[in-house]
Amino acid sequence: MNFPSLSAKTDPHPPGEARSEIPAPAVSDDGGGRGKSPAPRLYALDALRVVAALAVLAFHFAGIDKATAVNWGVSPRELFPWLFPFAKYGSYGVQLFFIISGFVICLSAWGRTPGQFVRARFLRLFPAYWFSVIVALVLYRLLPDGIRKSPSFSDALTNLTMFQVPLKAQHMIGAYWTLWLELCFYLVFLVVLVKPISFQRVYVFCWSWLILSVLIQQYDGVPLLPTLAPALNTSLFVAGITMYLMYRFGPDLKLWLLLGMSWLTMQSDLVEHGDRLRDDLGFDRSPYVALAVVTVSYLLVLAVALHWLDRVQWRWLATAGALVYPLYLLHEELGWAMIRTLYGHLGAWPTLAVTVAVLLVLSWLVHRYLERPAVRWLRTKL
C-alpha cells in the first residue's frame, strides 16, 4: 500500500494553467526536495488509512472462514458470530488504500523531479519493509505454522528487492502482493514526471491509463501490460488521482466524467472478481455488498477532495496514521503466530485483543526507533 506523508504546502500553479482559485496544497518533504517547510496535514486521510488498516486486520484475524480456522483451530464464524459478517468484507480496505494512494502520490509528486520522487518513495517504503522481511524469516524458522511451505533463504533475499513477483519468489508475507501493485503504480506514474507536472498532463495520463487497462483485458498473453494496468486497481488509483485534482484545482465536469468512468470500470471488475471468489474459494460474500463498501470508500475520499473534512484537525491522527504502514507489514504472520500461541490459554476475544494491542505497540516502536532514524540516515547518504 502507499503510505507517504499527508502534509501539503502551497506552490505556484503551472504556467498558463487557469484552473481554479482554490489554494493548491504542496508537497511534504518526506525525502524529495530540500528546504520545504512543514505544512498542514490532511488528518482526514490519516483517519481513513487507519480505518482501512483495521478493516484488513479484522479480515485476516476474524473474517476468513477456512484459512483463519487453521490458526484458531475453529472457524471465526463460530468464535465471533457478530463480528464475522462485517470482518469478512474487511479485505476491501485494500481498495480504500489504493484510492488514497492515487490521491497522495499525485500530491507528493507535484513540483518534484523524477529523481526526487523516486528518492521520496524509496525512503518511505523500504526501511520498515526490510525489517518486516527479517521478522517474517525469523518467524518461519522459529515458529513454523505447518500450513505453508517456508520460504527459502533465497526467497527472503529476493523479497528485500520488492520484485519477488517478476523474479518468481514466494512472498514472505501474504500482504506483500499489494506492495508490488504499488511499486508498479509508481513506475507508471513516472511517465507524468518526465516533464514538469501539470493538470493537463495528469488528466491525459489518467484517461490513457484507464482506457488501456480496459482494452488489454481482451488480449491474453500480452507481456507486462496486465501487470502495469490491471483494470480494477488502475480504476482505483485513477480515482484517487482524480480526487486529488479536485482537491487542488476544484471539481469540474471533466473531472466528474473521469471519476465516473473510473467507478464504472471498477464496479465491472469488482463484481466479476467477487463472483469468482465466491465460486472458486467459497467466500460467503455478496459482490454487491462489496461494491457498496468500495463505493463508500470513493465517497469518503471524495469528501476529503471537496474540502468537506477540512475541519478534522485531531493531531493524534497523525501518530495513528504513521503506524499504519508498519502495522500493515507486520500484522499477518506475526499476528497469526500470536493467535496460535495464545488462544489455548486466553480464549478467543482476549487473544484477539492482546494480539491487536501488541501489534499496535510494536508498530509504534518500529516507526519511532527504526523507521524514523533509518529515513534520517538514508536521506543524508542519498
Form type? globular
- Following the backbone from N to C, one meets helices and strands in this order, namely HHHHHHHHHHHHHHH
Number of helix segments? 15
End-to-end distance, in Å?
23 Å
Q: Which spans have pLDDT < 50 for at least 5 consecutive residues?
A: 8-39
Radius of gyration: 21 Å
Total E-strand runs:
0
Specify the helix fraction band: 55-70%
Describe the sheet with the most strands.
Answer: none
**Averaged pLDDT, please?**
84
* Percent range for β-strand residues: under 5%
Q: Which structural class is indicated by helix and strand composition?
A: mainly alpha
Structure commentary:
- The chain is mostly helical and 382 residues long.
- The chain has 15 helices and no strands.
- It is globular.
- The protein starts with 42 loop residues before the first helix and ends with a helix.
- The model is unreliable at 8-39 (pLDDT under 50).
In short:
The chain is built from 15 helices and no strands.
Key traits:
382 residues, mainly alpha, 15 helices, 67% helix, globular
SSE blueprint and pairings:
Blueprint: H1 43-62, H2 65-72, H3 76-79, H4 84-87, H5 93-109, H6 114-142, H7 153-159, H8 176-189, H9 199-215, H10 225-228, H11 231-249, H12 253-281, H13 287-305, H14 316-346, H15 348-381
Helix pairs in contact: 1-5, 1-14, 5-11, 5-13, 6-14, 6-15, 9-11, 9-12, 11-12, 11-13, 12-13, 14-15
